[in-house]
């Protein structure tokens, strides 16, 4: 018996040893049948749509338009200021972001490259899928647009960045700022050739869907990239294509561009889609997507008036004063003032169902303060913003911007007299007098100054002002810099090079050879 038991034990151990020696590592990797892999996913037109939708999804999380990107675009401008108790936010407008603390700017950098990675997946895999060619082209066009948009933000904010055009490389060398802008233009050019003017006239799974990138959106960002690189002739010609398409027009009510009413309107060239009704109730702070994530924004609570939100961003007094420089033809204050900020208006002003003077009457500091109104749910539908869930779409490219950028490119190419027409289209909406009558025959430099003023009032708190300040070279002009300091004390701490954010330390550590931006 003992012999038999020993015999069987030795046989068992021998078989186990032989079996173990034949097992490959790949044999131990078991694919979850309930989870997609790259090998099983990119098969159908539905997969292609889901893939490009995921690339759009990177616009909705904290690093991008849920919160961080508007903050990074706004806070360095002289149209707003911050007294946030959070140092990472407080220091953005003071040009003092820390290399040691990548909060906010580092989240943005990470999310832009998440979006680029997802767009690259579409561009690499969708061409091999057998599907309707027209739908395939639209999906690829959207991927080019989204990659170009994420590159636009990365190049615009971080100056010299990697430009991965596929996902096969682990490391991607840092490229020059000029290379970055060239890639933005290239991607937007490709997108403009593949995208429709709208989705109302197409057939397929995406027919009639609003919010998707269009030919006009691609041309607008291509023109903007030309403008930002001082290629004014190409900018002019690109913007003219949008105007001549007759697809867009200004909405009658300026405020309709910043509420959840009349979204995706005739003025919207491209907007990021948020909704209180889609998805779960959790905010998308970042990382791997979760089933409970909603499609809402934290912008409203971040910018919200005191008592209704965190008040991390506020308008400057200089911006308030600028709205009073010129009266309307009816001798009224520019109506964009009331659409842009809350203040103690003599005639009274309501916010979240409360009278401003009554609500803040017990605190003289608040009563005389200024608060953001754009992108606030303040018209009575909500009592405050403390649920963190705003459904207001972010209009990141408006037709008004196309018109004023076209006017600027006309002025820079010697057609100053023609620029009046397109500036006046924007002024007419808010009933301002004819500029050709009030300021006829402006020189090119006078027109530059006028366009700067027009852009400030039209796009205050929309993330455009500092981009304009930087690209116009005002930070390198001592008189202009002194003027900015007189308008916004945060410019007192500006240091050369800090018009860009630092390259996050994690990128420096993980991507060999990466050089830090000047000033850090």
Automatic annotation (TrEMBL):
Domain RagB/SusD, first and last residues per copy: 267-520
Family annotation (Gene3D superfamilies): 1.25.40.390
Domain of life: Bacteria
Stretches assigned to the SusD-like N-terminal domain: 100-227
Record-linked InterPro entries: SusD-like_N, SusD_RagB_dom, TPR-like_helical_dom_sf
Endpoints of the signal sequence: 1-20
A Pfam family it matches: SusD_RagB
Keywords: Cell outer membrane, Membrane, Signal
Stated family: Belongs to the SusD family.
Record-given protein name: Starch-binding associating with outer membrane
Source taxonomy: Bacteria, Pseudomonadati, Bacteroidota, Flavobacteriia, Flavobacteriales
């Amino acid at each position: 018996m003992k012999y038999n038991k020993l015999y069987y034990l030795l046989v068992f151990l021998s078989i186990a040893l032989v079996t173990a020696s034949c097992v490959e590592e790949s044999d131990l990797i078991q694919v979850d049948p309930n989870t997609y892999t790259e090998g099983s996913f990119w098969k159908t037109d539905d997969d292609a749509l889901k893939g490009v939708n995921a690339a759009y999804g990177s616009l909705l999380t904290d690093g991008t338009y849920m919160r961080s990107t508007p903050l990074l675009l706004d806070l360095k401008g002289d149209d707003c200021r911050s007294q946030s108790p959070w140092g990472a936010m407080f220091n953005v407008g003071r040009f003092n972001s820390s290399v040691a603390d990548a909060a906010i700017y580092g989240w943005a950098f990470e999310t832009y490259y998440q979006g680029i990675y997802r767009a690259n997946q579409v561009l690499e895999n969708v061409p091999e899928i057998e599907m309707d060619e027209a739908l395939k082209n639209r999906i690829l066009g959207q991927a080019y647009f989204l990659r170009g948009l994420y590159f636009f933000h990365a190049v615009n904010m971080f100056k010299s960045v990697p430009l991965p055009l596929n996902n096969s490389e682990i490391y991607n060398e840092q490229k020059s700022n000029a290379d970055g802008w060239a890639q933005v233009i290239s991607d937007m050019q490709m997108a403009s050739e593949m995208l429709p003017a709208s989705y109302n006239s197409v057939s397929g799974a995406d027919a009639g869907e609003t919010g998707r990138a269009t030919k006009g959106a691609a041309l607008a960002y291509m023109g903007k990239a030309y403008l930002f690189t001082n290629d004014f002739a190409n900018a002019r010609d690109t913007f003219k294509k949008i105007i001549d398409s007759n697809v867009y027009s200004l909405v009658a009510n300026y405020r309709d561009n910043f509420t959840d009413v009349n979204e995706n309107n005739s003025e919207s060239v491209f907007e990021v889609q948020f909704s209180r009704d889609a998805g779960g109730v959790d905010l998308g702070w970042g990382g791997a997507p979760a089933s409970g994530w909603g499609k809402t924004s934290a912008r409203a609570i971040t910018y919200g008036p005191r008592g209704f939100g965190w008040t991390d961003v506020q308008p400057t007094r200089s911006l308030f004063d600028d709205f009073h420089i010129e009266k309307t033809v009816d001798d009224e204050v520019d109506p964009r003032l009331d659409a842009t900020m809350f203040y103690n208006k003599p005639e009274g002003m309501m916010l979240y169902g409360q009278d401003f003077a009554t609500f803040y009457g017990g605190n003289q500091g608040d009563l005389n303060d200024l608060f953001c109104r754009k992108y606030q749910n303040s018209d009575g539908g909500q009592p405050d913003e403390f649920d963190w869930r705003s459904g207001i779409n972010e209009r990141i490219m408006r037709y008004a911007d196309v018109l004023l950028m076209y006017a600027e490119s006309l002025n820079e190419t010697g057609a100053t007299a023609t620029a009046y027409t397109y500036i006046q289209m924007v002024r007419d909406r808010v009933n301002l007098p004819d500029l050709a009558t009030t300021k006829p025959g402006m020189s090119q430099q006078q027109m530059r100054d006028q366009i700067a003023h027009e852009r400030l009032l039209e796009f205050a708190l929309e993330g455009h002002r500092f981009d304009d300040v930087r690209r116009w070279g005002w930070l390198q002009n001592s008189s202009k810099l002194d003027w900015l300091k007189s308008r916004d004390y945060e410019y007192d701490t500006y240091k050369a090079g800090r018009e860009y954010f630092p390259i996050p330390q994690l990128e420096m550590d993980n991507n060999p050879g990466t050089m830090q931006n000047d000033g850090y």
